[in-house]
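Narrative of activities, Objective 1.

The group set out to show that a structural description can be obtained from nothing but a protein's sequence at a throughput compatible with the screening campaign. Below is one input-output pair from the validation batch, recorded exactly as produced.
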Amino acid sequence: MKPREMSVAHVVRRAIRQSYERFVAHEADLRTSDDPESIHQARVATRRLRSDLRTFEPFLDEKWSADLRADLRWLGSELGAVRDIEVQRDRLRGHAAQLPETEAEAARRVVRRLDADREAARFDLLSMFAQARFAYVRDKLAAAASAPAFEDDACDAAVVALKPVVRRRWRKVRKAVRALGDNPPDAALHRVRVLAKKCRYAADACEPAFGKRARRFAKSMAKVQDVLGEHHDAVVAVEWLTKTAHECSPAEAYAIGMLAQIEREAAAAARAAFPAVWRAADTERVRGWL
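Output recorded for this entry:
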């Protein structure tokens, strides 16, 4: 089907189906294996679908969309509890390897505490699959992928109706960036990251209608998301290390102080890199089609 012949319903149905199939493709591994990639992909699927439901809200039944988003928020939080620990643990392990051997070993002992946290979160995740709510949500996702609850406007031409949808997401990102100031707080940068991710998802979902323009735009938002994601991960790591230091031996506290410095430097480097990444995104070539 040519882009000019696509309706909004075609684009939205494709986006929902892709996220549902992505989740299903990794569901069995979530139950039977301990593969971090399966958790990551399943979580991305729920996040993307939840974002798409919000993006395409004007074309979907309001109650149907809101109910499904609430279910996805629950499902995503269960997956996120495991995934966030994995990301932090693997990051700290990698940075611990940069320390002198004595301090590296002390830091690794502290980071192992995250293994127990992950096991507890993993147990909760497996318990989720036995809940009646999971079966209910799983069936709702299958139904949504097959037959979304559209409003009449979903029959409109995608190339006309969906450009304002992406534009609204873009303007939210740009407004948040303009409000940052010279030395923005960590929370403000994190908000930009979240908005950039939603904007990227919107562009990705609308790619069938807009082709290369949407792909280029989505890639630029992904770069913004990535650099601010590095900043956020470093900030979270410092917070965890600072809190954990009070529970450590002097040798361990010294080692994770060195580790925290690596994370502070990573956060500072990401801050410094952000303006150039943003300037590359906020150009006529990238966002002019909106």
